[in-house]
């Protein structure tokens, strides 16, 4: 557990706020973020990159809540976006369009227009067809689009196949062997201005060697281009640094950056990075309450009020998230003080057992964790750890479940940064045929 989520007298806190207080005030399920943790991870990058011309473009997809974007914007971050919607969020949160890079394989004409109007820093182009489209749209607007080609370095990121992006069989980027030809082509298109080269090989990497292998391949191409008179202003080495969910031992931010800088020694280009998960993953937990305990013949189930619509990672990738009690067993709440939202006579003795921690959704794949040893009772609060990245941003309304509330903690203060959705909002745009 991080310094920002810790036990004090058997009670789990986010910074200086007991998670029980947050649940009592805002209900569950609820995402809770530590502002200090967000700031800390960002500053680790900034410090490691000090003295080097750089821009840290937070990958918005990891967690696109305005409050999170705003924290990073205030710290001077740029943003890596993959849709017009993410661009609008960045602007609404006070981000600077001039620090935005736009990745993604399927940019629509409308999205390209929006980004050109906003004057973003760079389009990370992923195909020859996109290059043509970008030139055309820019021409129509009398603009010149800043361009980087996302080169697929064909490096194995050694991560989950669904989140590995830098192999030639993946849909991302332009083929390594075609990149130089496409740069030549881009150099001739009048409404494009070549500014950089980028790559992103995958997510949740726990070793530095694939990053370095990719960087070296990218640098070799940069040299080929330079020999042809095509000079780049920036190199964007993407995101992908992993976090500890269970027993992984990913490199520390400072070590990862130091290795990248060593590989770039003697290079003058501005370095752009696109970290997502590492900035937010361990800065957030998902707070959930046990609704029922069901002791079956083969398995025991803890049915909680968070589900796969709130946190999809376990169902989608079989991802592991640690699940811990908000109040440790030997620190039971005093009896005259029943927990809020408790049903009739809700104080029950905790039962220590191995539980399948599951949600209420009608799918067998709706689980948060398998075979967890927990001492809990109905109404117990649990915290699902490492839920700050790809949690809320991948949530849905499946089973017509309103999306969770989000709270940002700052020292002793809790801020509600997203209200729990109301069911009526979910169908407000719908109509019936009469
Ligand atoms: N840049 C690009 C172009 C990306 O596609 C991604 C993530 C990032 C940066 C940020 O990667 P990070 O630093 O967060 O690893 N939903 C999956 C992760 C998908 C990542 C997609 N691309 C998960 O929950 O594990």
From TrEMBL:
CDD domains: PLPDE_III_DapDC. Residues 38-280 form the Orn/DAP/Arg decarboxylase 2 N-terminal domain. It comes from Candidatus Gallionella acididurans. One of its GO terms (molecular function) is pyridoxal phosphate binding. Its EC number is 4.1.1.20. This is Diaminopimelate decarboxylase. It catalyses: meso-2,6-diaminopimelate + H(+) = L-lysine + CO2. The modification N6-(pyridoxal phosphate)lysine is found at residue 61. Coiled coil: none annotated. Its cofactor is pyridoxal 5'-phosphate. Specifically catalyzes the decarboxylation of meso-diaminopimelate (meso-DAP) to L-lysine. Keywords: Amino-acid biosynthesis, Decarboxylase, Lyase, Lysine biosynthesis, Pyridoxal phosphate.
């Amino acid at each position: 557990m991080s310094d920002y989520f810790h036990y004090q007298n058997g009670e789990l806190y986010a910074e200086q706020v007991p998670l029980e207080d947050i649940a009592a005030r805002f209900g569950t399920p609820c995402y809770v973020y530590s502002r200090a943790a967000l700031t800390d991870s960002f500053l680790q990058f900034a410090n490691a990159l000090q003295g080097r011309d750089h821009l840290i473009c937070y990958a918005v997809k990891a967690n696109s809540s305005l409050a999170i974007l705003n924290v990073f914007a205030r710290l001077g971050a740029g943003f890596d976006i993959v849709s017009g919607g993410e661009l609008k969020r960045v602007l609404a949160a006070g981000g600077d369009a001039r620090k935005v890079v736009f990745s993604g394989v399927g940019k629509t004409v409308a999205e390209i227009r929006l980004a050109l109007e906003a004057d973003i820093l760079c389009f990370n182009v992923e195909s020859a067809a996109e290059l043509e489209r970008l030139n055309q749209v820019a021409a129509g607007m009398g603009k010149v689009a800043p361009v980087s080609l996302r080169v697929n370095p064909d490096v194995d990121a050694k991560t989950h196949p669904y989140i590995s992006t830098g192999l030639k069989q993946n849909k991302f980027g332009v083929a390594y062997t075609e990149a130089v030809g496409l740069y030549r082509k881009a150099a001739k298109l009048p409404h494009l201005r070549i500014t950089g080269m980028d790559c992103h090989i995958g997510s949740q990497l726990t070793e530095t060697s694939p990053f370095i292998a990719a960087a070296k391949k990218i640098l070799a191409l940069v040299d080929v281009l330079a020999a042809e008179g095509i000079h780049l202003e920036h190199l964007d080495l993407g995101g992908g640094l992993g976090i500890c969910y269970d027993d992984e031992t990913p490199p520390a931010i400072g070590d990862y950056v130091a290795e990248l800088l060593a590989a770039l020694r003697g290079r003058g280009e501005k370095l752009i990075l696109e970290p997502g998960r590492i900035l937010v993953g361990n800065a957030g937990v998902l707070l959930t309450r046990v609704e029922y305990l069901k002791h079956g013949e083969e398995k025991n189930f803890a049915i909680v009020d968070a589900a796969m619509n709130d946190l999809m990672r376990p169902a989608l990738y079989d991802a592991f998230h640690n699940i811990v009690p908000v109040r440790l067993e030997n620190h039971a709440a005093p009896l005259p003080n029943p927990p809020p939202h408790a049903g009739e006579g809700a104080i029950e003795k905790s039962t220590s057992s191995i539980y399948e921690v599951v949600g209420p959704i009608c799918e067998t794949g709706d689980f948060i964790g398998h075979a967890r040893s927990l001492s809990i009772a109905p109404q117990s609060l649990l915290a699902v750890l490492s839920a700050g990245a790809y949690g809320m941003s991948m949530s849905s309304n499946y089973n017509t479940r309103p999306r969770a509330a989000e709270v940002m903690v700052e020292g002793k203060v809790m801020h509600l940064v997203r209200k729990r959705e109301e069911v009526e909002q979910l169908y407000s745009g719908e109509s019936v045929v009469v």
